[in-house]
Amino acid sequence: MLMMDRPRGCRTLLLVLFLGNMATALEVPLDPKVLEGLPQPPTITHQSPKDYIVDPRENIVIHCEAKGKPHPSFSWTRNGIHFDIDLESKVTMKPHSGTLIIDISGGDKAEAYEGVYQCTARNEHGTAISNNIVIRQSRSPLWSKEKIKPIVVQEGVSLVLQCRPPAGLPPPIIFWMDNNFQRLPQSRRVSQGLNGDLYFSNVVTEDSRSDYICYARFPHTQTIQQKQPITVRVLNMDAINETMAAYLNDTDLFGDDPAEERRPSFLVPTGSTSSKMVLRGQVLELECIAEGLPTPEVTWSKVSGELPTKRAFFQNFQKTLQIMDVSEADAGEYRCTAKNRLGSVHHTISVTVKAAPYWISAPRNLVLAPLETGVLTCRARGNPKPTISWFMNGVPIENAPTDLTRKVEDDTIIFTEVQTGSSAVYQCNASNEYGYLLSNAFVNVLAEPPRVLTPLDKVYQVIMNKRALLDCASFGSPLPGIRWFKDSRSSVLDGDPFVFHENGTLEIPVAQAFNSGKYTCVATNSFGISENRVHLEVKEPTRILKQPEYKVVQRNRNVVFECKVKHDPSLIPTMTWLKDNGELPDDERFIVDSDSLTIMEVTENDKGTYTCIMNTTLDQDSASAQLTVVEATPTPAVIYEKPDAPTDLELTDPGARSVQLTWIPGDEHNSPIKKFLIQYEDALHDSGTWHNLTEVPGTKTTAHLKLSPYVHYSFRVIARNEIGYSLPSQPSHQYKTNPAAPDENPSEVKGMGTEPNNLVISWKPLTGLQSNGPGLQYKVMWKQMHVDEKWTSVTVANVSKFVVAGTPTFVPYEVKVQAVNNYGHGPNPAVIIGYSGEDLPVEAPEISRVLVQNSTLAEVNWRSVPAKSVRGKLQGYRVYYWKERSLHKHNGHGHPHHMEQQTLTFGENRSHGKLPGLHPYSLYKVNIRVFNGRGEGPASTSQQFETPEGVPGQPAFLRVTDNNLDSLTLEWGPPHEKNGRLTGYTLKYHSVNNSNELGHLEELTVPANETSITLHNLKYSTRYKFYFSAKTLKGPGPSITEEFATIMDTGIPASPYPLSPTSQFLRPPHHKGNEDWQKEMVNGSQSHVLKGLKEGLAYKVRLVAKGHTDQTVHRSEELLVTLPAMASRQVDIATQGWFIGLMCAIALLILVLLIVCFIKRNKGGKYPVKEKEDAHADPEIQPMKDDDITFGEYSDNEDHKPLKGSRTPSSGTVKRDESDDSLVDYGEGGDGQFNEDGSFIGQYSGKTERDTVQGHESSEAPSPVNAMNSFV
């Protein structure tokens, strides 16, 4: 990053971008003829590592190789001082190389040559330098002699056996063994720490031994040093008491009290917290070893996040946490917990991650032409931030000769209009306290005329309609421009159908015959011109005009397959015939001609697929046909069936991502196989499910399959003919592809905040098949646009989203997600733009004005809010408006009439909107809010506006309060919605006759303060239709329409009360007693249809007009109506005279018998007749059965019961004492239904005659038209 003030940084950034567009690094071709004559500054190609530890028993070799033109010379410095090799007899330099060889075989010590070495390679065009190479001799010192006393400990206590090896270079590898060189067993109870000490969480008697030996192996010298054996005796309390005296003088005794169970405590590290620093890219090792009884179990967690699942490993029985390839994201607090059944203890380790410098963009060699412009960039990161230093030819750039064409801007050097002879090697050094990086990059200023490298007169041949590519490889400095000419060079080729590539290649996407000819490419720069000729020949494609056809041949017959081909005459064709994708059998029966294949005397073995292939040097065409051999005679009926399953699947030609599958087709069953479907099963990711992979024609029995990495494939083949699909073949043997890095990254990557301070990055995870290997993870990367230069990243697994917390509100982020597995990273992911979460807007729009356009529509205008105050993506404006009150006087301010608030939403680009559906003559309020994806902001200040008057609504009602022969009094209610000040009413009316013809239309104007009017001089008994409307200054409103009629001229004075609709009444004739009329309301019409009347009966009909208080104001004369009788197929016996007489006689006889019985019972006692009756019951007076028609003996307690022989209504119920107006007392009960025209009718059956008789027997029986609605 540039360390400068912002304005200067912006100017520099713009300049770099400008120069980046102008400068193109010239690629030097590898053609030896070109390289041979080009000058080149030195480049270091090989050098020894920065920290070089040498074996003191071998010669020291310090590598330094470089290339350049001319070949560079070499020199060395040691500890910053020139190292004169000529003065060192033991030091030699390899010829044509800078590699030093220091010979110490003569007894010289390697430590005499320790120091810091640096190699310099120079020629006349510049100087390159190597890293500082620190030479140190490896050391493996001996262990200091010491006397180690035996250690006696009580069983159950903790113990630490110290190793403390001598310091070596590099540090030794520590391990514990016994006298037999066998490693001591370790466990969760006993383990070796990182410092080499052996830790016992608690000791047991089995730990007693005398050969605890610590070994140190020094890797460079391959030597092993050992410490003196340590003796440990573990005693229980009884043994301690017995041996106390024996060991008191010459041993260390641990523990005075019996060791009891105890909660854990840490042996290492000590305390409750500690800290550790680790460098980026190194391995972080954290250790927690606890003691306790029983043995504690150690667990790890990261306080500030999750452990990296793919880089974190637990070693040493969970006591060591190891994180590979540490990054900045691994910094934080880690907690280890030791726990047993008595309790637990925690220790927190604060980890800080620092970083030695690492490259973001190392400087690259730059080849420029004179007066061209270029840029060297050197970008590195580290923690702390690295310091960038520039050198030119090994000298600090500030001490280098001044060059006006060169400008240094921190990590960038800008070259402007470079001059010949200004070639040099520049070094960039990025360093901090943890290390440094050094990179050489030369700037080579070349002035070279163009050279065309494509061979002269090269001929390109291409098939018609295919792509043609004509090369014109060239080199020059500056980079030459390429122009193409055809034939006479009369004009430069340009535009369609030609495509010009940056490397000079000419492309003709679809070559045609007229494109053939000679082409010339001309390379030009400021130092010269070069040209070259090539030739293009466009050939006719090879096509099979007549393909071989499917053949069914009887055995011992001949068969001919034809294959006629057309090809370009200048190309030499080759015809090849194959049988089942293999060579034809070596049999003289197979005769191959120029355009056919003949098979003589066909046998069963000749069946199969025959393919003709026509090859030329440029293309080929092929066609296949199937041969089926059948028996000669007799010819059975042909049966067509599905093919049998293919067999003998075999996998050949295994590749990393491909394999060849072959099979043998099953029986076709007289229907040729059209295609084969190849399926696969992935036993690793989706076992048991078969997926379609590819299809091949039915003439082929092999397929080259393209596969994906990290899949356990099994294949099967299904054949298909005209009938259908065969059964699947048996699966092939399993074919496992090797894992690889992912080929693709997750799709549907999105960045969207859910809270004001977060960014949720989501994606569609890869499937198991797409993972390409184990350990699938996702590297999520993000940075704030225009703010961060550095990508922040985190690696996650088994999730499809990641939440970035602590973000600013609604700012753009660049986001990308890369797939990673154990075998590498996926391709460089595409960058998408996402936004952090939105917050509610903080400002309200300002209403600039409200324009009332009419009584129901207004337009509101507003000023938008600042974009920053939206705090999210502006989605639009919401306008809230509501009616405060009407402007009528009776709705004063003291009685506001709020209506439901209405809302309208307008788009983000709108600054005005219309408010529809307003109530005229009203006071409204309106305010506006801005909203984003999070919600609405505050409301603007509410603004009032008034709507003007409008036309009124329909009058509330219109009715007649008094009607006479020639007048009607109308009454009305003012409209509910006046919508202004009423100025009056308009009344229009005309008469309507029976045929609905309309009379003359009359019109009256009524003052606004009137609520009734009387119309005179009307016709009697006439129906009128009225249209009544209110009006304001805006005009009349909608009309209310009603029809009313004047009364008939009968001499009866008009009732002072309003009339009800006219009713019709009817009853059967010869009705005795009080007359019970059925009624129907007819609503003032002049005709009406009576329904549900009985055939063959006579009815009286009259019309009655009633007032609103139900008093009769008019009654017409009665009209006798007789309905014609219908023929009946049966005669009801109840209507016959003889039956009626018989029933009357029986009733009289029963009455006499009842009187006699009653008299006898009152006298009491028994009489002979009574005894005889008791002994011989007379059947005449026996109690009757339910189905008899005679009566049993009379009883007092049945006086109030209906007689068993009496008739009830056919519904089985006794008639109820109800009002005369009831419609359910007649016929077979009171159930009724509505007919199609809506009138209420009764249910009638074949018992009409019986019902009629019953009606004659009682004065209370209603008329047969019990289905009519009563409106009274």
TrEMBL record:
Residues 1168-1188, 1247-1259 have a biased composition (Basic and acidic residues). Residues 1-25 form the signal peptide. SUPFAM superfamilies: Fibronectin type III, Immunoglobulin. Coiled coil: none annotated. Pfam families: Bravo_FIGEY (PF13882), fn3 (PF00041), I-set (PF07679), Ig_3 (PF13927). Residues 42-130, 141-231, 264-352, 357-444, 450-537, 541-628 form the Ig-like domain. The chain crosses the membrane at residues 1138-1159. InterPro entries: FN3_dom (IPR003961), FN3_sf (IPR036116), Ig-like_dom (IPR007110), Ig-like_dom_sf (IPR036179), Ig-like_fold (IPR013783), Ig/MHC_CS (IPR003006), Ig_I-set (IPR013098), Ig_sub (IPR003599). Residues 645-740, 742-839, 844-950, 954-1050 form the Fibronectin type-III domain. Gene3D superfamilies: Immunoglobulins (2.60.40.10). It comes from the Eukaryota. It is a single-pass type I membrane protein. Residues 729-750, 1168-1272 are annotated as: Disordered. Belongs to the immunoglobulin superfamily. L1/neurofascin/NgCAM family. PANTHER family: CTX-RELATED TYPE I TRANSMEMBRANE PROTEIN, NEURAL CELL ADHESION MOLECULE L1-LIKE PROTEIN. This is Neuronal cell adhesion molecule. It comes from Pygocentrus nattereri (Red-bellied piranha).
